[in-house]
Design goal:
Layout (H helix, E strand, L loop, with lengths): L11 E8 L8 E7 L5 E10 L2 H20 L9 H24 L7 E2 L5 E2 L9 E2 L1 E7 L9 E7 L4 E5 L5 E2 L9 H8 L11 E4 L22 H5 L17 E4 L10 E2 L5 E2 L13 E6 L7 E6 L1 H4 L4 H14 L3 H20 L7 E8 L3
Antiparallel strand pairs: 1-17, 2-3, 3-6, 3-7, 4-5, 6-14, 7-8, 8-15, 9-10, 9-16, 11-12, 12-13, 16-17
Helix pairs in contact: 1-2, 6-7
Amino acid sequence: MEVKQDGSLPPVAVHGDARQGAKQFQEDSFFWWTSPSGNVVVGGVYDGHGGSNGAVSSQTCRLYSLQYFDSVKEECESWSVEVWSQKLESLFEFLHNTIREKFLAEQGVKRQVDEKGIVRLPSGDPVHGGTTASVAVLLRPKSADEGLTIVSANVGDSTTLLIPQNGKFDFLTVDHGPENRDEYIRVQKLDPVQHPEKLLYVYDKANVFRKYECPLVFLEDGTRDPTFVRNPWGNGLHPTNVRYEPAVYAVTPRVISRDTTCIAMTRALGDFYAHQFGLTYQPSVTVQKVPKDAGRVSVVVGSDGIWDCWKYEEFSEYINDKLDKNPKVEVVVEQALNFSIEKAVANFGSKHYDDASLVLLVYNPQ
């Protein structure tokens, strides 16, 4: 690791941007933040769902995330990894509750909260909408003898990748999707008194319009149904991205008539009505120590509007190639976003491609 002549270590370069897809509302939001000393750099992406309520959810998270980090800009410099983990968990809970307040405060719409914390319309129907959340915190090494530390927290399917200049990419987030066995087990273990009805994890099978009638991803013992593992397309499934992963949903059982949900994730901020069935706002937190001699390290936080268009290894190669040719992160972000949108339109059509957001953080000790 090279130390500059003034004794300081190289900074983390960061930039982010987003593109609206074919939807009516831009439901993606992003942010980045740097502490006064530059020793702490944060990037985050919020991918909303639920139309205008999804946009409100993600924009609320962006605004209050920036306010939060500004409020701790001095003290966070000395936080340990353990404290960072606790603070991110608390931040996610705060953002979740703040979305509820924003839903209630919407002008011209009379809403109320029931005893379960669900925001409801005068009709009694729940207010739909929420957002994923992925936040990566880069802690610069305090000396030339140390490497970079990355603390990452997420709910949902907005993925964060660690991309070394030399070597294989790694995931810094947990994919909270209905194909995740750990998430299936988590929901099954919920207290049956508090959660008498639980989310079903199903494949999205062609021509089945009542999603609770779609085939279950897991057998009762938590193993995947081998019928669909062996021959997904021959059994009526369809891919959801270019990696040919079958489309899956978390849905409410047949007996639920009012608070029905069909969502592509098992954890999210907002979506208050779905928490009674097992959805949760509590994030997965990971800690990654990067060796001091790892060379350039990139961290990419992106929404599924990015990841649905790529195989992860191809994206990693693409980012490294672009940074090799032009180390300016703002240029690489714009190139990656524009190319991802081109790929999305080609793969999913001009009327069906998703919003896309991306934050790129680069630490280069050379």
